[in-house]
Amino acid sequence: MFDPDIAPSGTLLGLLQRGRGDGTLYALAAPRAEALAALHHCVLRDPRRDWQVENRSLYYARLCLDLDAGLGEIAEHLFDADDVLDTGEERTGLALAVLGHLASYGRADALLLLRRYAVSGTNWAWALDELALRDDDAGLLALGASVLARFPATPEGERDLAAAVRDAFEPRPWRLWADEKQSPATADRVRAAQEQGSFDRWQRQLRPSGPRPGWSVREVLDWAQQGLDLHPTQLRHVPATRCLTAVAGPEDRLEIIQAAAGGPEAARATALRYLAEHHDPQALDLIESAAADPSPRVAEAAVTAFERMRSTAALERARAWIHRGDALGAAAAGMLACRGAQYDSALVLGALRRTVRAEGPDAPVLWDLVQGAGRLAIGCAAPVLRHVYRETTSSQLRGRTARALAATDPSFARGFAVECLWDCEETTRELAAHHATTADARVVEQLRRLAADPAEEAEVQTAVRSRFGPDAPQAG
């Protein structure tokens, strides 16, 4: 099933939301008003499945340039009343990132809009980070007094200012504002905030809250369990596993096995992870039992512990579990895809087809399955891989699928590789730069454009240059 906010993959809007290269190509061929409407829909309503890791901003900025798009709709979105009511970064982050790229391409109107939003917008810190990369010193210095005015001269205001300075992703503006020669009006206050941030970090280092040397296995397990009683809840089983590794000896094995078999939730999760990481002979049986536990925390911890195992015994168990219809079965499929032998190809292919049929093109385990199809060079997987490529709403999964198609589909170079040159993900563009046939005139033109674009990633440009060097392969 598709997310209801994502249009079908065969439409212009659906292609642009997914960040597919065909989205750009279709938009340039469509009526300009229709293309602009779809583009603005994407920029103002972030379509990414995971906005923190998927790329769209450069993709949309390039299309803005190609369509000579104005910024009126973005300005209305940034300064709408919702900016005060909905303070989440995901509401405005994509629009601000697009403006940042447009500013780097020389769009003065984008730079002015970023400055205006940094002064009065809710997500001002993001806008300031964009300006830190693109604006000149004079432009940043002019913003200093306005940004500091956000923080009242009260103890609480000074604490908030110190936190803002300490947590800034790009420190350049704060360094300028702390320079007494360049910004005397802000220097004293910003320097005090910088000192307070350093002092806060030092104090946290003096007050460690975790386990101490000399703790017993029981104390580590209790500490993990105590995290569930806190507000907000702290899931401590991962750090507790590291602590357990430091304090546990052979004489503690029975106690840890008992905790893994029937201890409280967090203690059980810790013990399961510890036994799996140390390849204990009983780990797999305990994991199988815990995976069916009614507690979601215990079941999830069991599956995660199994996924981290690297033993031959774990691979053998994966071959037995791959037909299960639960999370443990999915983990087994992912393990065989990533680490299985060539004779596991049929199992991986069956899991791939079964997953797409039952869960659709965005199932989490597909990340491993499509990679495994490429790793094992399963040629007959190409049709289902092409389906995942077209339909998934995750641009990163699409990139993995493209890499698998390069290893399994003989038509990739003259098919999907061509559109991948316009893809939103730089790793996908890099793959296409290596594979796309230069017999297509569009490919040569786009390769040259990528080579000359200062915003393009270095890895992509290196791949492009490999196609035009003296040792470059012949067109085909």
Describe the structure.
It comes from Streptomyces eurocidicus. Residues 454-476 are annotated as: Disordered. This is HEAT repeat domain-containing protein. The chain is an all-alpha fold and 476 residues long. It has two domains: 12-206; 217-468, Leucine-rich Repeat Variant, CATH 1.25.10.10. It is 67% helix and 0% strand. The protein is built from 30 helices and no strands. The chain has helices at residues 12-18, 21-29, 32-44, 57-67, 72-78, 82-85, 89-104, 108-120, 124-134, 137-141, 144-148, 155-167, 172-177, 184-206, 217-226, 237-247, 253-262, 265-277, 283-291, 296-307, 312-321, 327-339, 345-359, 366-375, 382-391, 395-408, 416-420, 426-435, 441-452, 458-468. Helix 8 (108-120) packs antiparallel against helix 9 and helix 18 (265-277) runs parallel beside helix 20. The chain is flat and about 65 Å long. The two termini are 38 Å apart.
